[in-house]
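We emphasize that the prediction below concerns an isolated chain of 248 residues; any contacts that depend on oligomerization or on bound cofactors are therefore not represented. The input was used exactly as deposited, without trimming of termini.
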Amino acid sequence: MSVATIFYRNIKWRFHNAFTIVITILQPVLWLVFYSRVAEGTLRGAGIDNYTAFIFPGLIMLVCFSACSSSGIMNYLMKTDGSFYRVLIAPVRRGSIVLGQLLEAVCCTFIEVGLLTVISLLLSADVMLDMRGVVLIILLIALMAFFMAGVSYSISLILPNEVLYETVMNAIVLPVFFLSTALFPADGLQGAVSRLNPLTHAINAIRSMILYGAIDMKTIGSVGGLFLLLGAGSFGWALWSLKKEMRL
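Result of the prediction step, given as a token string:
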């Protein structure tokens, strides 16, 4: 059993439980449709002419969080029906199990980002992207999603039930989301705090490409390198958590 087999198995599970896609995409879409209309007039005075395009990178981050958090929920549901433990006793490398599930979360993220992109364009989001910008954004999203999937996978193996898991994930996601530049330009104390948030730098890099078509390879390279390291760390944590689970 290889990474591809685990990935295909999890994709089948995801579409068999399509409500996990609907639930995770619902909140970002509501933010996009309603919040952008409410705040757009207010923020036009701050120099933000197209608020829908401005918040789009932040909502991409929210989609990453939601889709990858549902990957942790998958573990609980598979434990309930016994399929989680059947995979563990199969002759397959533990790294393949983790990597297959993390890649499934990345794939789910791209499906939901695609839906969000279509809705944004229907809402007249102006973008200044060329093909190189599209490729770089896809790469940054993949790195962000892989990192978040590893974190959520690890936490799901540590906590005993879904309720506690969702509580902890919300306690992580909400501060990280609001203490970034996802919704508003940062200034003052919030700006100082948001600069410590690695997701702020990813959002800003994606936003520069979407709003202005600006591609700063030095910035994109540093953000990509940061998330490559964070992703490797989260993968290692997830693998360690799975091996610990097997020893219990």
